[in-house]
Amino acid sequence: MSENHGPLHVQTPLRASDEPYDPQTLADLVRDAELIVARYPQKRSALLPLLHLIQSVDGYVTGRGLTFCAEQLDLTEAEVSGVATFYTQYKRHPNGEYTVGVCTNTLCAVMGGDLIWDTVSEHLGIGHDETTEDGKVTLERVECNAACDYAPVVMANWEFFDNQTPESTVQLVEDLRAGNDVTPTRGATSVCSFKQMSRVLAGFSDGRADEGVGAGPASLEGLRIASGEQTYTRTAPAPAPEAPKEQQS
């Protein structure tokens, strides 16, 4: 590595944690890994949730976590690393306590997503996949949050915050950094930490699946029409009157 070039990311350790897990942490990981692997007919199929499990303990995919996954699934470290570096939900450097993703795909962008991104990025002083100095917020530019009917949409640890503005998003990140309670628009009634959400993504329920609003009105509009609860009437502007035709001689 050239003396003029550091890690690819400002918070990337040159050697991701190689320190062995302490006996209790290792025992807990092995126990949870066995539960995850038992769900699949082939061990290697458990790799995605196992990587989330590692993040629930280390906060990102560490070197020791990568080795653990390889050993549990009879894979090479290269195979595990290939998967961990392919998906953006797996972090190869320390992640903030809260991942805030601003959607800047087409619909969210034209509805204000680009302005939200620019405002929040400048406010926090960080760019894409960078973390505030206090370790609280990692900011991401997201291609799609799969909630176009509520554009522009922001997510905090994958909880929805719909119909956002630059001002409301700045308030959201400041509340998260201050430890204030924030309530997502839909889903759970609060935002848990990145590590806690990683454990959920690994397949371990946190008991919050039935909290809050499951789907908002805009998402249910088509269902109400299809079920006959609501009548859909297509409206179109009245046609413009035709100009009088010249009399033919």
Can you offer a commentary on this structure?
By secondary structure, the protein is of the alpha+beta class. The chain has helices at residues 23-37, 47-58, 63-73, 77-84, 106-124, 166-178, 194-201, 217-226; strands spanning 98-103, 130-131, 137-142, 154-156, 159-161. A 5-stranded mixed beta sheet has the order 2-3-1-4-5. A hairpin with a 5-residue loop joins strand 2 (130-131) and strand 3. Helix 1 (23-37) packs antiparallel against helix 2 and helix 3 crosses helix 4 (77-84). The termini are far apart.
Which terms summarize this structure?
8 helices; five-stranded mixed β-sheet; 39% helix; 249 residues; alpha+beta
What would a concise description of this structure say?
By secondary structure, this protein is an alpha+beta fold.
The total of beta strands comes to 5
- pLDDT < 50 runs, ≥5 residues: 1-8
Helical residues, percent: 25-40%
Q: Give the oligomeric state.
A: single chain
Give the structural class.
alpha+beta
Sheet with the most strands? Answer: 5 strands, mixed
Which sequence of SSEs, written as H and E, runs from N to C?
HHHHEHEEEEHHH
The rounded Rg comes to: 24 Å
> Could you give the order of strands across the largest sheet?
2-3-1-4-5
Q: Strands, helices and their partners?
A:
Layout: H1 23-37, H2 47-58, H3 63-73, H4 77-84, E1 98-103, H5 106-124, E2 130-131, E3 137-142, E4 154-156, E5 159-161, H6 166-178, H7 194-201, H8 217-226
Parallel strand pairs: 1-3
Antiparallel strand pairs: 1-4, 2-3, 4-5
